[in-house]
């Protein structure tokens, strides 16, 4: 999905605002979200000492304290599949569904690194029944490209280099 | 009434003490957390979702190699004492059995079990595959649970992400979803007061410890559950090898501590183990906690060849059958019965007399 603001970059943040008693959800890219004062996952990641939950709380108080229209960055993020918010996760410690990992991915990547020292699964690969992943080079390629993008975002350059090589072979 | 006789060995073959190092390591447990793709995780799921999950898993189990003859228990249709029995056998978690304060099992909460492997359905994750082996035997336990995983994963699509691995309700389990744990008896380290050093060391190497019943449970009778803390960023084999390496070291420390005890205070140790044995054999009232502590003393004595008996199998059985729900069920009482300490002492005497005659 493209960013509702610039209509150029991919939207990675869902921002829910209440305006004139109606709820409006904006889908924004990282840059536009930052312009609107939302503390994005990227910014959270860069905060050197703040822990994951602390970062979310900080997002909340900054927005609330400033009296801005923008609601708390962390809390505003809502999983489109199950409707859970980051606040729900913060309260219960449990995610709502598998899609939450995509909806909250930058927050979770940071948390996973703190918990496990890494966010990159290197154990057994799984292919669900009926999926021809490895047999179909095109979907394999898409999968690898998605992994590459995440590896670059996560500054996991060693893995990125390996993935790039594998993509070259397939292409 | 639930019929536990449907389960060969009551679902506890691990009690037989046939595994490696079984005087020190009681059991090895492996669990894998999995969720069904496209269905909200258990806490967020609706009753219909959970029922659908149970149906899919049951169907898949029927046509699998590893669970085709599984016995199924619907926790949500069982009375509390029966649920507690399964929990005391380490076959279900407190959460699945709805034993937390003022809680009930979730609709759709179930256990499928065949031989030494099983699946908890609609626990914190849709599926918790597990296996429990006698003694220190990570390889066999993992191989068996991995086979169940492969069987079910071929028929039920699991939630998997190329970067984060298997997706779980709590991010602490994401990636491999693997928790390997070893239930180990460490009286030597406790008596020589070296235990805290060892436990502190564990957290520095990515491991953690819990009590007899896993998360949130207290340490009783010098029994510790050692397990991996992290589940992501390492392969399954790496996680298991690492735990194995550390457990071997802990076993070595425990053996050294026992040597120190025997060298520096042989009479005291001998007296302690015989006293424990004597109390178990003759006491007329025993609390569960006291029983655990006395069993620990006797187990140490048996491990050091200071006591002629009882066998480790009997000691393992006593650990399970002296728990409240088991005693109550055997004697047709409630778990809150004030006579339980008397019933417990009589049961212990009976089992130990049977052993020595």
Low-confidence stretches of chain B: none
Strand tally of chain A, please?
Answer: 2
Number of helices of chain A: 9
Oligomer: heterodimer
Biggest sheet features of chain B:
8 strands, antiparallel
Question: How is the largest sheet of chain A built, in terms of strand order?
Answer: 1-2
Q: Helices and strands of chain A: which structural class?
A: mainly alpha
Integer-rounded radius of gyration of chain A = 18 Å
Radius of gyration of chain B: 21 Å
Mean pLDDT figure of chain A: 71
SSE succession of chain A: EEHHHHHHHHH
Task: Work out the number of β strands of chain B.
Answer: 10
Would you give an account of this structure?
The complex is a heterodimer of chains A (171) and B (357). Chain A is mainly α and 171 residues long. Helices cover 50% and strands 8% of the residues of chain A. Chain A is globular. The model of chain A is unreliable at 39-72 (pLDDT under 50). In chain B, helix 2 packs across helix 11 (324-331) and helix 9 packs antiparallel against helix 10. The longest helix of chain B has 29 residues, at 236-264. The radius of gyration of chain B is 21 Å and the shape is globular. Chain B starts with 24 loop residues before the first strand and ends with a helix. The model of chain B has no long low-confidence stretch (mean pLDDT 92). Chains A and B meet through helix 7 and helix 8 of A and helix 4, strand 6 and strand 7 of B.
